[in-house]
Amino acid sequence: MKTHFIKMFGYNLFANQQLIQTMEANGSPEVTLKLMGHLLAAEQVWLERCRLIPSSLPNTWPENVTIEQCKKQVPERYEAWVTFLNEIDEEDLNSIIPYHSFTGDYFENQLGDIITQVLNHGTHTRAQIGQQLKFAGTKTLPITDYSYYLRVLNS
Question: What fold, for 2-153?
């Protein structure tokens, strides 16, 4: 599963970069920046939880997000997640991660389930960004299908 998750973070990187290019080419509507900032903040918060360290962010909705910040943070988040995955053993994916929500509620989840959450959240949020780009007048969205990514990867 570790290899699978590393591959999926490669896809996550690709899809985020494709969408950021489209955001920038279409004037970076504020709502899309807010959503991408949320996606990236959530990736950071979850990684910190998985590393069992306190969150460095007060929430997952940063303010005044810029396209330049997004362009910088996307590869940083990818590198951080892949580094983490390369540091753990396969059996660690079954370990229980305790954490508190921003409202103080206590939860526990398996590490593999948290990683799945992070990746699914990214896909969900990218769809929201795509919808907002269409609302703002973007004619064509980038292809971010996983099967397309595999074709690009293998070409």
Answer: Four Helix Bundle (Hemerythrin (Met), subunit A) (1.20.120)
